[in-house]
Amino acid sequence: MKALIASSATGGHLYPALAVAERIKRRDGGARILFVGARYEIGKDIVGAAGFEQTAIDVTGFDRRRPLRNVETARNLIRSGAQIRGIFGAFQPDVVFGTGGYVCGPVIREAKKAGIPAYIQEQNVIPGLANKMAEKYADKVFLAFEASAGHFRGKGKLLITGNPIRDAFLTAGQADCRAKLGIADGDTALLIFGGSQGADAINKAAMDVALRFGGREGFHIFFLTGKDLYRQTCEGLARLFAERPAGVHVMGYTDTIHEYFAAADLIVARSGALTVSEIAVSGKASVLIPSPNVTNNHQYFNAKVLADAGAAIILNEADAAGLSDVIEELTADRARLSEMGENARKVARPDAADVIIDEIYGRKQA
């Protein structure tokens, strides 16, 4: 099997792609996998560190706010077609798989022209424009959430699979991870993060959380600020505390976030589709603060999947100053946290990557 995977470099697109790639290699050790990304995006280090081949094409997204930039985008779109055909000719893929972002559409379209089986996977409840446009070229569209189905036209192409989750989230043990992070039995562990880039509103709310809970006996706060906001956040904390309280752990980024998911009693986060799926498969209670700065308010609809299941509380960013009160209420009720975690696990799809691979391999063999 030779699989070509097209993915944007954002975590929400790239990590599901890596989860599928991991599962292909587990099933077929001799498989070759080539990632195709946009030359102007970051993410190469993540793919390379995972041990996969990669290449890039000259493709950029349309800029709705600055239309003049789209002249170059149109040129890149034309240029990328020839580049993709060259990659196909050299690599000779058996299947093409895309997880969205503007790199996905041209690759799936060229696969259709070349007669190569092509698949796309949509992570969000409200699908992205790239996947909606790529749908007509795809043989199958894998959906994370059933509520997405109404946004696609080719009903016969749709398959509800859930979001592919990396193996690390599926195998991390709570007891081992809590012991590794120094969390004793009966202690409370809180994970707060705003995604790999961080979120200023969540970071500000987290400072109030540190004021309220920092130094409290048996309370641990693991606070991921995002790389770019780490220094700024640490300076803010230094203005609040002459010495950072015990139990307040601040990081810009971690490669082992699955361990913090496994160890946590409660997670506070944005509600990107992958985060929601990782929370569900980890079986954790959560407070979700959707970003108001995304297309079609899709993070709210992602969060609603867990909230409707009784697994999460949705807190609007405008109300984030009240985060400490919500945390106080939830952490005071261990039974409620446990129930929310069980409810999250009920909507999880830990087999998503396997379902996708079964479909891809089945069609290839057919």
Task: Please describe the structure with a list of short key phrases separated by commas or semicolons.
366 residues, alpha/beta, 2 domains, 6-stranded parallel β-sheet
Description:
- 45% of the residues lie in helices and 16% in strands.
- With 366 residues, the protein is of the alpha/beta class.
- The longest helix is centred in the N-terminal third of the chain and has 22 residues, at 70-91.
- The chain folds into two domains: 2-165 and 350-365, Glycogen Phosphorylase B (Rossmann fold, 3-Layer(aba) Sandwich); 172-346, Glycogen Phosphorylase B (Rossmann fold).
- It is built from 15 helices and 13 strands.
- A seven-stranded parallel beta sheet has the order 3-2-1-4-5-6-7, with helices on both faces.
- The mean pLDDT is 91.
- It has helices at residues 11-27, 44-49, 70-91, 104-114, 129-134, 167-171, 174-180, 200-213, 230-240, 257-263, 273-282, 298-308, 323-331, 334-346, 352-365; strands at residues 2-6, 32-38, 53-57, 95-98, 118-122, 140-143, 158-160, 188-193, 219-224, 248-251, 266-269, 285-288, 312-314.
